[in-house]
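User: Quick one: structure for sequence A, then sequence B.

Assistant: Sequence A:
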Amino acid sequence: MIKPGIIWGKHYKQLIDKAKRHQYALPAINITTMDMLNNVLEAASIYKSDIIIQLSYERAQFIAGYGLNKTPLECATIGALMVATHAHLLAKHYGICVVLHTDHANRRLIPWIEQLVNLSDYWYKQHKTPLFSSHMIDLSEEPIDQNIDTCKFWLKRFNSLGIGLEMELGITGGEEDGIGHELNSIKNTDLLYTNPADVLKAYNELNHLGNLSIAASFGNIHGVYKVGNVRLKPTILQDSQRLICQQKNISLSNIVNFVFHGGSGSSRQNIMEAIEYGVFKFNISTDIQFAYSQGIYQETITNNNCSYLHFTRKKILKKMKEVFHLLGSKNQTITSHCS
């Protein structure tokens, strides 16, 4: 049995393997405040689902506070340390496994990742665990060889501490905390659909170096969009899996660990199809942010009640119940189900 709390290394791999084997996905929630983190952990505990907590650079900076007499990099590093310390202290008491992850970091934000890995070095010496379970490096705007070479360097570094790496291939439309593109700015819409040959190349050069996951684009858009406005093609994931298996002459169906970005607003059919093709991590930020803001609006505007945090909690618990049911992760925690 795996102990509850923040997991990394081999236990994170076991979590991924179980999700893919039983065809469910873990919700990955971008948190903005400490109370939102607490609410999400509570929901995961109630519904016995393991969960991925994500933090972006800008949200880490916000949590530290803009009033600090520090550089933005220093603020974001302090904010990330605050969240990680909070999560490490709290997660183990909720009886589920938690993956702690940093979201989209482009070339400009790699110094932030470097700072966090340095902190993980220190944290590991003190606690025998890294600070974060995994980090995302998003160099999807760069040539693929450059993307892979940078990820190769960092995956080796991460793996020495049991930290996983998530990379992005192809462009996810929309914007995530200042990183990304509005749809109107993407002149070549083919970039929204990753070429399976690129997945093969990245897998061959990186997978043996550590715990690798790939955010391959198949029309994904950050934020909630109207049905029919974006055409998702989850078969790109299936084609990528088949290509790799054919090249390696193996019979495994889902050898790649795929990530679904821009999950909010997606149809159930697209979600189930993506999970069938190897998606284990489902990013769903906007829907949770909406639930949080609805709790504030309802109590401050509608009910003239400024004590709104209790109601944001109720809204998040309700939304998370829907998410766990949709992704099939309810009652699947590996703290009690290791088969």
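Sequence B:
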Amino acid sequence: MRHLIMGVPKNENFPVFEVGVAMPTNKLAAIMNWQDESDCVFDYQLTAEQISAIEEVEQYELPKELDLFLTY
């Protein structure tokens, strides 16, 4: 399963940024604190802590001025 991070300007509805997440789902599950295998199929607005953890693992910086969402 391939997850994406989408960035949406505040108070907008359409993404202006998208990047793939290469890390394995089990590692992403730990960052996202998923409890069930089916949790990975939903969309999530990322917290500051989750963004930092993903940036560290993926070795890229995400835009700070956008609301970021994890999707699949």
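The first strand starts at residue 3 and ends at 9. The longest helix spans residues 48-58.

User: Thanks, that's what I needed.
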